[in-house]
Write a structure and sequence with these properties.
three-stranded antiparallel sheet; 4 helices; 9 strands; globular; binds inosinic acid; binds magnesium ion
Length: 183
């Protein structure tokens, strides 16, 4: 895999510092809440980020999984996405949801999911992303917690894939454009 990587963008050590910093923020921000803190791992990309982050959250937290896919760039920028795996619980009014994503690109996925869970009656919905590519935004969306703002390059590793590959790299790297035929 390593020969397909142009350069390391976020090292394993940096990721460790990022998860510590964000977990501290979460531990502080939710300390006074009387609701249930429920982390939502967005499959598959945020698997590693969620597991590293949750180890450092000292508040009692539950975990749920959702699997979603974007309709793609050709559809409207209304934030419509496919939900392949949904949350089945009937206590949403008692829940502070924290959605955990690998990367925010257009912003469609998280802006749609935030609205969807809020409309279902969640007590609160916040978002946490390892990476943010603000240059690529097509909808107005800002994550509540962000690990690192990165340039508009295609990245893989630490959960992020290209054609389902590279997820198991322990760092985030820039994929050589010739591997995927892009910028
Ligand atoms: P969006 O913010 O709705 O456009 O979608 C974000 C999703 O696009 C992420 O969860 C990833 O699955 C995918 N994505 C965006 N940029 C990258 C990248 O650089 N590498 C790998 N996946 C990416
Ligand atoms: Mg993803």
């Amino acid at each position: 895999m390593i020969q397909d990587i142009e350069s390391v963008l976020v090292s394993a050590e940096e990721i460790d510092r990022i998860t510590s910093r964000i977990a501290d923020e979460i531990n502080r921000d939710y300390a006074e809440s009387n609701k249930k803190l429920v982390l939502i791992c967005i499959l598959k990309g945020s698997l590693m980020f969620t597991s590293e982050l949750m180890k450092k959250i000292t508040l009692p937290a539950e975990i749920e999984f959702m699997k979603v896919s974007s309709y793609g760039a050709k559809t409207t920028s209304s934030g419509v996405i496919n939900i392949h795996l949904d949350i089945k619980r009937d206590d949403l009014a008692e829940v502070d949801f924290l959605i955990i994503e690998d990367i925010v690109d257009s912003g469609r996925t998280l802006s749609h999911l935030t609205r969807y869970l809020a409309e279902r009656g969640a007590a609160s919905v916040k978002t946490c992303t390892l990476l943010d590519k603000p240059d690529r935004r097509t909808v107005d969306f800002t994550p509540d917690y962000c690990g690192a703002v990165i340039p508009d390059r295609f990245v893989v590793g630490f959960g992020l894939d290209y054609n389902e590959k590279y997820r198991n790299l322990p760092f985030v790297g820039i994929l050589k454009p010739e591997v995927w035929g892009g910028r």
